[in-house]
Amino acid sequence: MSNVAEQVKKIVVEHLGVEADKVVESASFIDDLGADSLDTVELVMAFEEAFGVEIPDDAAETIQSVGDAVKFIESKQG
Amino acid sequence: MFNLEGKSALVTGATGGIGEAIARALHAQGATVTLSGTREAKLEALASDLGDRVHIKAANLSDRESVDALVPAAEEMMGGLDILVNNAGITRDNIFMRMKDEEWDQVLEVNLSATFRICRAAIKGMMKRRQGRIIGITSVVGVTGNAGQVNYSAAKAGMIGMSKSLAQEVASRKITVNTIAPGFISTAMTDELNEKQRESILGNVPAGRLGTADEIAGAAVYLASDEAAYVTGQTLHVNGGMAMI
Ligand SMILES: NC(=O)c1ccc[n+]([C@@H]2O[C@H](COP(=O)([O-])OP(=O)(O)OC[C@H]3O[C@@H](n4cnc5c(N)ncnc54)[C@H](OP(=O)(O)O)[C@@H]3O)[C@@H](O)[C@H]2O)c1
């Protein structure tokens, strides 16, 4: 797992209070990890802070899963 | 009780009668305040009167860029924002059949759309900090209606609906969203009334007098306090009994 993926996973575990082994790349925040829509907004804010990237609203809406988040952040860090 | 030391507050319309009283009251309870309005000289005068723990940021709420710059500026000056008081408001009264598009648009823009945008800017930081108080100054006529004020009462009713919905969205993050609905309060806004209007209004106020800006400020201090943590989505009517809702 990449460094970004590790860190994303850690943030998701902390924020949603879910078990680490459930936080796989394909896991959807809402459908698989029990997040509500407000949680997803907060996750995006946490990613922005942790990685120092800005995630505009239209991009934030496409980030539905752990993998989406990792991909987006890696593309920004290029 | 009602200690606001260490809290940061932004008050819009702080150059007006009610806004100044609210800003003074929050400050007196220990809060750091950012005063906003369009009249810079008035803002500066009030700030120098209050002394320390005061910042000013002028903003014209009918200009969207200026609206969007307000909360970030307040957060930067105070290091955060715990208490937001959306108090600025205007009237453009006319009977419905003569109401112009501009009169409708201006009132909705300043009283409702600016409130929405300011709340949206403030909520992010409040969510992060897991605390926040949003207080909107609406009006009794937002609930009862008032002939000659379709635009104003629509905007004020809109504030109430918006507050209730937002309150539901963010309650789990320890943020409360409430409104205060003043009745007739003695300020520049009500000084415009003539003697006859004043008498007919007082005929409908069981308390038999206009309210004071300080009586609105007291309600704001309460809603801003830790003691009011379990009060959200409510409208606190401060109107001398003119409408019991
Ligand atoms: N007085 C009452 O009986 C009464 C009753 C019910 C509700 N209210 C509500 O209470 C609030 C305060 O009213 P008030 O009686 O204190 O009235 P006020 O003395 O006329 O004050 C109005 C305030 O709103 C600000 N404002 C107006 N247009 C603005 C704009 N485009 N951009 C930025 N700020 C603007 C003014 O700032 P500048 O002058 O610096 O532009 C002023 O500080 C209002 O929302 C009003 O609807 C009042």
UniProtKB/TrEMBL annotation, chain A:
GO terms for molecular function: acyl binding; acyl carrier activity; phosphopantetheine binding. GO terms for biological process: Kdo2-lipid A biosynthetic process; lipid A biosynthetic process. Keywords: Cytoplasm, Fatty acid biosynthesis, Fatty acid metabolism, Lipid biosynthesis, Lipid metabolism, Phosphopantetheine, Phosphoprotein. It is found in: Cytoplasm. InterPro entries: ACP, ACP-like_sf, PKS_PP-bd, PP-bd_ACP, Ppantetheine_attach_site. Its main location: cytoplasm. Pathway: Glycolipid biosynthesis; KDO(2)-lipid A biosynthesis; Lipid metabolism; fatty acid biosynthesis. It holds the Pfam family PP-binding. The keyword Cytoplasm applies. GO terms for cellular component: cytosol; membrane. Residues 2-77 form the Carrier domain. The modification O-(pantetheine 4'-phosphoryl)serine is found at residue 37. 4'-phosphopantetheine is transferred from CoA to a specific serine of apo-ACP by acpS. 4'-phosphopantetheine is transferred from CoA to a specific serine of apo-ACP by AcpS. This modification is essential for activity because fatty acids are bound in thioester linkage to the sulfhydryl of the prosthetic group. It comes from the Bacteria. Carrier of the growing fatty acid chain in fatty acid biosynthesis. NCBIfam families: acyl_carrier, PRK00982.1-2, PRK00982.1-3, PRK00982.1-4, PRK00982.1-5. Belongs to the acyl carrier protein (ACP) family. PANTHER family: ACYL CARRIER PROTEIN, CARRIER DOMAIN-CONTAINING PROTEIN. This is Acyl carrier protein. It comes from Pseudovibrio denitrificans.
UniProtKB/TrEMBL annotation, chain B:
Pathway: Lipid metabolism; fatty acid biosynthesis. One of its GO terms (biological process) is fatty acid biosynthetic process. NADP(+) binds at residues 38, 87, 152-156, 185. It catalyses: a (3R)-hydroxyacyl-[ACP] + NADP(+) = a 3-oxoacyl-[ACP] + NADPH + H(+). CDD domains: BKR_SDR_c. One of its GO terms (molecular function) is 3-oxoacyl-[acyl-carrier-protein] reductase (NADPH) activity. Homotetramer. Belongs to the short-chain dehydrogenases/reductases (SDR) family. Catalyzes the NADPH-dependent reduction of beta-ketoacyl-ACP substrates to beta-hydroxyacyl-ACP products, the first reductive step in the elongation cycle of fatty acid biosynthesis. PANTHER family: 3-OXOACYL-(ACYL-CARRIER-PROTEIN) REDUCTASE, 3-OXOACYL-[ACYL-CARRIER-PROTEIN] REDUCTASE FABG. This is 3-oxoacyl-[acyl-carrier-protein] reductase. It comes from Pseudovibrio denitrificans.
